[in-house]
Design a protein that fits this description.
Keywords: Cytoplasm, DNA damage, DNA repair, Exonuclease, Exosome, Hydrolase, Isopeptide bond, Magnesium, Metal-binding, Nuclease, Nucleus, Phosphoprotein, RNA-binding, rRNA processing, Ubl conjugation. The chain is mainly α. Among the domains are: 67-129, no CATH class; 254-474, Ribonuclease H-like superfamily/Ribonuclease H (Nucleotidyltransferase, domain 5, 2-Layer Sandwich), CATH 3.30.420; 485-574, DNA polymerase, domain 1, CATH 1.10.150. The protein is extended, with a radius of gyration of 49 Å.
Length: 815
């Protein structure tokens, strides 16, 4: 065995030496392959053929067990399996992995082998990825070049709130990120936060740099004497009392100035980028007093541009709090404690609304609304670098990407979601806040240059960025207003079908959460997160402990108010259990809500909605159509089914219980239809009754005209009430005779030949022959057919149909 191994190793060495010489001579990558593409092509073909061969083997089950019963097949499978395991072990050894694939226990061998294969695959693929990155020029092991004064980020292993094995400073830093023992800053505010369910009214009362004066309704900060009324509602009541125009209260105070703002020529020219100073060499000031704020405003008014950013907190406040404002100039950095100076921040309006000073923001959509909501600040002449990044079609539009792209700075985003209410601020958070604005003016210069170069030195693209930035400045803060249908928008986002009980519970919990969040000035996510509210609505717990079980972790206010929540869930469980169908709004398009308000659409079924839309369309179209178009429309409508509006609509789910609920729309419609059908039936009955009376009169007249004047005795008379009493419905012959009395009277009596009763069989008659009249009257025969009438003591003739041989019907003259 040793000799064979030595020979094999010697042969392999010879082959390797020969292959190396061949490679040097022929320039081949490996023996038999010129380049990598040829090797890969051959390898893929081998893998494909092996896969096809394995697919041709007997499948596991009866077929495999049958073949396994043959000793030859069994020996072949074992030999091939050992060969595959040997190859796999060699590959694992080559990559430094555990390769004991064959030496495994029979009971747990399969699972252990599978784990070994998975681990080896991970190692091999990871090495392949590293080699591909190095081929692309990316070296993960190389340390990036940091600017002077930059502090490398600390690597956090596992969860952020888990204490690491290092020094205690790291654990303290991360505990401060979401500190639980922060004093609520709302308690120190001079003005109480208005969380009422009323529209937002701008806080501005002084308008610097005004081209149009502030309306009189905003120049006074006096409140009416309604102390129990919220501030916004008190302002509205005050304006109603003084008969001021309400639209001025909610208008943008600088609407006129922004509409008439024109971009200066120097702002559309190509600037020379001014390099930023290192952060360690830049002067920094933390402003938390009124004197420092006034001094800062004076400095800003003398500049031509400055950068602004805000830090916001929204978890422990209903509307949110602006905690910090960062302002950077070319020479200095400032951080303003807006929690301490909340009521004095309006002083900065002098610099923020100056049209000759450029205010540089990044992603100012939310910042503009926060400035209006908390401080009454407005921005004129804004430049948003986010809009410039979109115009340049950069790979990403975040501030991190712009810092990396233009300044080669990696920002530490660990503090992006930190609790900025913390006082005093840690140094790490101060450095992060300064980074957001320190480099922004240099980025502003760079994007202006690229915008002009991108458009061949034409200012069109740069002007579009200025216009988009101005549109952002015109945004107005809109306060969240609760309505009875507010829960529907959130429920639609969940994309879950709920029954009536679950939907009622969701509605009640949503209203409870909104009310408590406004009272306690907490966010709705802190009071009751949405996923927990969905869980409670779906489960509908019968006990308070069930509500606690649906929340993990349990919010503090839920634990306090669990009994009230239990009552709401019980109220929802008392609702009748019905399935709520998702109604499709059948309008002209999926987003067409121009014709019907959203509140009306929520309570209508698809059939009612279609009928309303058709009626509205018909009224609008009739006003604008010409005479010819009106005639064409009438002709087209004549070919349609006139009863289509009363037919049941297809694919419309009508609840059976809703038909008996007086408050439902279906009950009202069905009741209306019943009343209409009853009225229609009454009209038809009256018409039949009238026709019956007319038929009686016509028959009476025809009987009187046909009487013979020859008979001198008493003639048998017809009683008026007999026809109505004995015949509840007039016969068709009587109706025809009543409709055509003239034709009957026009028949000459000379042409009529009476029947000769002497030739008939008298036994068919039940009574005696009348002595008074031998004249046969067809009208009287028609009326008194099959009737027994007693008049003056005589019995009328009665005969049986079908037994007479007279054949008088054939002998009568045609009328």
């Amino acid at each position: 065995m040793k000799s064979t191994k030595n020979r094999y190793s010697a042969n392999s060495c010879r082959q390797d030496s020969n292959s190396e010489t061949n490679e040097e001579e022929n320039g081949e990558l490996c023996p038999g392959f010129k380049d990598v593409d040829a090797f890969v092509k051959y390898g893929l073909g081998a893998v494909l053929s092996a896969t096809k061969a394995s697919a041709g083997l007997p499948q596991a089950g009866d077929e495999y067990d049958f073949y396994r019963s043959f000793p030859g097949f069994q020996e072949f499978c074992e030999s091939q399996g050992d060969g595959l395991l040997r190859c796999m072990s060699q590959i694992m050894q080559h990559h430094g992995c555990r390769s004991h694939v064959r030496d495994q226990n029979k009971l747990t061998g399969l699972e252990e082998r599978f784990d070994l294969v998975v681990d080896s695959n991970d190692v091999i693929l990871e090495r392949a990825g590293i080699l591909l990155d190095e081929a692309d020029g990316v070296n993960r092991n190389q340390q990036p070049v940091m600017p002077a004064g930059f502090q490398p980020p600390k690597i956090v292993v596992s969860s952020w709130n888990r204490k690491g094995p290092g020094s205690g400073s790291r654990s303290e830093t991360f505990r401060l990120l979401h500190a639980k023992n922060v004093t609520r800053p709302q308690l120190k505010f001079k003005e109480r936060i208005d969380n009422s369910n009323t529209p937002f009214i701008p806080k501005i009362f002084i308008k610097p740099n005004a081209r149009k004066p502030l309306p009189a309704c905003k120049t006074s900060r006096e409140r009416p004497e309604d102390l129990d009324v919220p501030a916004a509602l008190a302002d509205l009541i005050h304006q109603q009392r003084t008969q001021e125009h309400v639209d001025d209260m909610f208008a943008h105070p600088y609407q006129y100035e922004l509409d008439h703002l024109s971009t200066q020529e120097k702002l559309l020219s190509k600037p020379e980028p001014q390099m930023y100073k290192p952060m360690a060499e830049t002067k920094f000031s933390f402003i938390d007093s009124l004197e420092d704020l006034v001094a800062l405003n004076e400095k800003l008014c003398k500049l031509s541009e400055f950068a602004v950013d805000l830090e916001h907190h929204s978890y422990r406040s209903f509307l949110g709090l602006t905690c910090l404002m960062q302002i950077s100039t070319r020479e200095e950095d400032f951080i303003i404690d807006t929690l301490e100076l909340r009521s004095e921040m309006y002083i900065l309006n002098e610099a923020f609304t100056d049209p000759s000073i450029v205010k540089v923001f990044h992603g100012a959509d939310s910042d503009i609304e926060w400035l209006q909501r908390d401080f009454g600040l407005y921005v004129v002449n804004l430049f948003d670098t986010h809009q410039a990044s979109r115009a340049l079609n950069l790979a990403r539009h975040s501030l991190d990407h712009l810092l990396k792209h233009f300044c080669s700075v990696d920002s530490d985003k660990r503090y992006q979601l930190a609790d900025w209410r913390i006082r005093p601020l840690p140094d790490e958070m101060v450095q992060y806040a300064r980074t957001d604005t320190h480099y922004l003016l240099y980025i502003y210069d760079c994007v202006k240059v690229q915008l002009l170069d991108f458009n061949h030195s034409q200012p069109g693209l740069l002007q579009s960025v200025w216009n988009k930035s101005k549109d952002i400045s015109l945004k107005k803060y809109v306060k969240p207003i609760y309505t009875e249908e507010s829960y529907l928008e959130l429920q639609r986002k969940q994309k879950k079908s709920l029954n009536t009980q679950q939907l009622t519970a969701f509605r009640l919990l949503f209203a409870w959460r909104d009310k408590l969040a406004r009272q306690e000035d907490e966010s709705t996510g802190f009071v009751l997160p949405t996923h927990m509210m969905n869980k409670i609505s779906e489960e509908l717990p019968k006990e308070p402990q069930g509500i606690i079980a649906c929340c993990n972790p349990v919010p503090p206010l839920v634990r306090q108010q669990v009994n009230e929540l239990h009552l709401l869930v019980q109220q929802a469980r008392e609702m009748p259990l019905l399935k709520v169908r998702k109604h499709e709004v059948m309008l002209f398009g999926p987003h067409d809500t121009s014709r019907v308000s959203e509140s009306d659409l929520l309570h209508l079924s698809p059939g009612e909605l279609c009928f309303i839309l058709k009626e509205v369309e018909k009224k609008d179209a009739q006003k604008s159509l010409s005479v010819a178009q009106m005639k064409a429309r009438q002709i087209t409508e004549s070919f349609q089914n006139p009863f289509r509006m009363y037919l049941p609509s297809k694919d419309v789910h009508v609840n059976k219980n809703a038909k008996f609920d007086p408050s439902s729309k279906i009950f009202e419609i069905s009741k209306r239809w019943k009343l209409q059908s009853i009225e229609q039936q009454q009209k038809e009955m009256e018409a039949k009754k009238k026709a019956k009376e007319e038929a009686k009169e016509q028959a009476r007249k025809a009987t009187g005209n046909g009487e013979s004047a020859k008979s001198g005795g008493k003639k048998r008379e017809r009683v008026d009430g007999e026809v109505g009493e004995l015949t509840p419905k007039p016969s068709k012959k009587l109706m025809k005779s009543a409709e055509k009395p003239q034709k009957t009277e026009a028949t000459p009596q000379e042409s009529f030949k009476p029947f000769d009763y002497s030739q008939s069989d008298l036994r068919v008659f039940a009574g005696t022959k009348s002595k008074d009249s031998t004249q046969f009257d067809p009208n009287r025969q028609d009326e008194g057919f099959k009737k027994k009438v007693s008049a003056s003591g005589n019995r009328s003739m009665s005969f049986l149909a079908g037994k007479s041989d007279r054949g008088f019907r054939h002998n009568w003259p045609k009328r």
